[in-house]
Structure formats: structure tokens, C-alpha cells
Amino acid sequence: MPINVNDPEYVKAEKEFHSSKNLEEKLSALNKMISHAPSHKGAENLRQQLTTRRKKLEALIEKKKKSGKSKKEGIRKGDMQVVIVGFTNSGKSSLLKSLTNASPKISPHRFTTSNPEIGIIEHEGTQIQLIENPAIEGEFFDRGLLNSADTTILLVEKIEDIKKIKEIMKKTSRNEIIVLNKTDLLTPEQKRKTSATLQSKRYNFCLISSIKELRNNNLEELKKIIFDSFNILRIFTKEPGKDIEKSKQKPMILKPGATVKDVAEKILKGLSKRIKETKIWGPSSKFGGQKVGLTHKVKDLDIVEFKTK
Ligand SMILES: Nc1nc2c(ncn2[C@@H]2O[C@H](COP(=O)(O)OP(=O)(O)O)[C@@H](O)[C@H]2O)c(=O)[nH]1
Ligand SMILES: [Mg+2]
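Above: the input record for the complex with guanosine-5'-diphosphate. Below: its predicted structure, written as C-alpha cells.
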């Protein structure tokens, strides 16, 4: 016999359940219903039904997560890619909006972002792709992105979340930055303690507020930490006769160990075969304008000039 529950919290949760747009919202509403369901003997059936329903929902969410279909079609991997990973409401969309040209939807509701969102961080003439991975505990989380990204930002509101996220990720990425968000809500003393704890764990970390408009948000420092996390070389190319200073604008990005040949091939496939002479300025040169061969290894911030046949 169906029983009539009139606890207002239960009724509210039930309404939420029926108007939920996705599985996570449904689960969250269902959990509320369970916690407000009557505890007397006559409601045993109801409680049973609710927990069965919860089991089914959880299984469904898990299944969707496991199918792990990568939704990253359309994201062409750039030289420097960083992915933000975190629980719902940790401030991922806000961070993406503050650091890039993207305008993702930001809301206090849970699971707002259902597709990876991408933006570009402009940093000293280079471009860094910043991707918001949908909430890690939700059905839209994209595991594929963890493999393609060069750097992972673990965005958390409290230190305990780091461990939880790592457990779900099941792998540590090479370059990991712990970013503790919403520090505008902490007292200076709490901030100091948090910093000390993260320091003692030897994390590469940063304390921020992901809302640009908030003061002392530390976002410039985070940009620098992100940039420094990539193991890359910035190489400028110079046209013969052009001024050195004017050539130092948009560097190309190469991997450590790259040679003059790699630089040429990155400009244009096959170019290295047509090179007559290479001159180099900067850290890898003995003197400005030194002539070098194709196997010469370049260093960060070198300037390279090619003469072709
Ligand atoms: N106080 C404070 N609130 C924040 C901060 N960053 C985000 N929020 C709020 O947290 C909620 C969730 O933000 P959102 O960026 O949508 O989180 P997401 O679910 O991780 O993408 C929103 O209400 C934001 O306004 C922050 O640095 N400080
Ligand atoms: Mg979001």
C-alpha cells in the first residue's frame, strides 16, 4: 500500500527528483529523499524501493562513466595543453573564464558543464590550451583528456579532495598542479596553514580565487606556474636582414633536445632539405650569428635564421 509522505523536505526532494535533467541530479535528489523518508515500520516498503532505485541509478552512472567515450573530437591538440580536473562546483568554469577567452556557463547548480570546454591562455606570445573536464564524479567526465593533456590541474576547495580525485583518476599525471580555489573564503591564518600543508607534501601548488573580479586572486602567479610546468623550448625564427629584436615575438614551441633540423621541419615539412645556411643567436650560440649545422641542438629562446636554396 503506497504511503503518503508529508515531510516537506521529502516532498521537495521528490519534486527535484522528477525535474532532474541528468543522472547525477537524480541521484542527489534521491539521496535527499532517502534521508527524509519516514523511519517507522509502515514505510519499510518505501525505503526499500528507494534504495533499490538508488542502486540502479548508481549502476547506470558507473556504466556511462566506464564507457568513457571521449568527447574531445574537435579539440586539436596544441603544443601546450592543460586540463582542469575537479568535483562539481569547485570553480572549474570560473577558472577557465578568468584565464582565457572562453565563456563557459557558471552556476551554483551542480553538473552544469557536460562537454569539455576549451579556452586559450595567451602567455608571452605563446598559446596554451586550457580545457575544463566536466566534473570528475559525473557521467560526462572525459578520461581520454587525462592522457592527451601535458599538464593536469587538480582544482579543489579543500585539501582532502586531492586524495579523492587521485583515487578516481587512478593515475598520476607527469605534470600535476594542485590549485586550491575559493581562498577568498579563508582567513589569513587558514590560508597560511593550507599553504604549509601543501608545501610539506611537496606539491606544485597555488592558492587562488578563480573569480577574476576578486582581489588578490593570484591568477597571474598560476599562469606562470602553468607555463613553467611544460617542458618546452621557445624558438624564434628570423628572416635574413630582419632586426633581431623584432624577431622576438611569437616563438615556436619545441621539445627539449630539438635540433635545427626539427625547427626547420616544424616551419614546413621538407624545408630542412632546402637549407643552405643556418645562423643562430641566443643561449645555444657561442656568439650572435654563429653558423651551425642541422644537428645543432637549440636552447630555449634561441633565434634561428635560415637561408634556403
Ligand atoms: N567565493 C568564491 N566562489 C567561487 C569561486 N570560484 C567559483 N565560485 C562559485 O562556485 C560556484 C561554481 O562555480 P563553477 O565555475 O560553475 O564550478 P564548476 O562546476 O567546477 O565548473 C559558482 O557559484 C561560482 O560563483 C571563488 O574563487 N570564490
Ligand atoms: Mg563547470
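Notes for the reader.
Residues 44-67 form the longest helix (24 residues).
Residues 194 and 200 are 10 Å apart (CA to CA).
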